[in-house]
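Reopening this ticket.

The earlier resolution said the output was attached, but the attachment link was broken on my side. Pasting everything inline this time so it's all in one place.
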Amino acid sequence: MLAAVTAATAAQDAQEDPMLFTPAHHPPGQPSALGWHFAFVGKELLLPDDGSETPALPPGPGFGALAASRHYLGRLDGLDCWAASLPDVPAGWRAVPLRAAMMQFPAPLMALAGRAAQVLEWDRTHRHCGVCGTATERSASERSRVCPACGHTAYPRISPAMMALVWRPGELLLARAPHFMPGMYSALAGFVEPGETLEECVAREVEEEVGVQVRNLRYFGSQSWPFPHSLMVAFTAEWAGGEIVPQPDEIEDAGWYPLDALPGIPPRFSIAGFLIRDTVERLSQAG
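Inline output:
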């Protein structure tokens, strides 16, 4: 795993992008004629097949009876937003991997595409009760699926995960996992365990993955990450001691890199990209 931004950056982005999103579970009495429709076939997002190499998703009338399931998400810029699942790719559309589409979308559409993917995946994987096996039903009052037999309620799953960028004067600790793209390095990351605080998770994951100890944790930001349902919570952490020992099967390589000689790092599309670049700037200014 490897994009929220700092509060200052987020505020700047909000000023530069006037598109405002209001979340909701139920559509208004008079839905907008056009809307933002995030439709998926499997795990791929549908985009107009207009010959453009750059993914784009303009507002449209939706897919009507072609949609096997549909969920209301809220309103963006006064237009209703929907998540929809289709069995096949309709004429005039093409299916694109979600990650590739999100990398090209403006921030509001990127966030909504991720939200839509998570809602649809939750709906798909909770059609039957995990307690007694009975077919579940959508709740009329909230975003949940309820078992009519035993009353068990299933809400959209959110899996908190920490991300930690370890630093010491003039250097960052970056690592790569076996599944990364060639030459790509990033901050450390891992899921929070039951009964664990975020701070405890940072200390444990860092020591497990690279064998070093940290101190002076500083919160950076968070990002909803729909692969498949993570909430990434990012920190910087000062190196406190220990030598790098990569965890077998988890970390392919790790090392200390000068601020002005970093390897390939994730783009700003992900929180890792913001975290690394903003930390380099902060440490460089501090001298």
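Reporter confirms the inline version is readable. The helical segments are 7-16, 98-104, 107-125, 198-210, 271-286. The first helix runs from residue 7 to 16.
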